[in-house]
Specification:
The chain is α+β, with helices and mostly antiparallel strands. The chain has helices at 10-21, 38-48, 61-65, 75-84, and strands at residues 2-5, 27-30, 93-96, 99-102. A hairpin with a 2-residue loop joins strand 3 (93-96) and strand 4 (99-102). The longest helix is centred in the N-terminal third of the chain and has 12 residues, at 10-21. The protein is globular, with a radius of gyration of 14 Å. It holds the Pfam family ArsC.
Amino acid sequence: MAIFHNPRCSKSRQTLSIIQERGLELNIVEYLKNPPSKTEIKIILKKLGIRPIDLMRKGEALFKENNLNDPNISDEFLIDCMAENPILIERPIVIRGEKAIIGRPPERVMEIL
């Protein structure tokens, strides 16, 4: 099991706490310090079953400034943007085997525990 975690995010901390309270072995990835590659982002998207735009933090200034919500932008370009600017990736992401969830709200993590 792994969590893509931002320790400055309250939702990410709450999700991590729910997992740790159950004593489960967990790999904590501080994704802003160790960003996922384009390949890793594609794997995460497949496990989540969502498109790249659905993994992006739409409130981020970088998202708005670059008009990344434009429907003419390709999925590949959005993946490139997330790989180069991990702040654009929604958090926390919890992966267990072939399944993943975005922990918003944090209790969603229970779906894969």
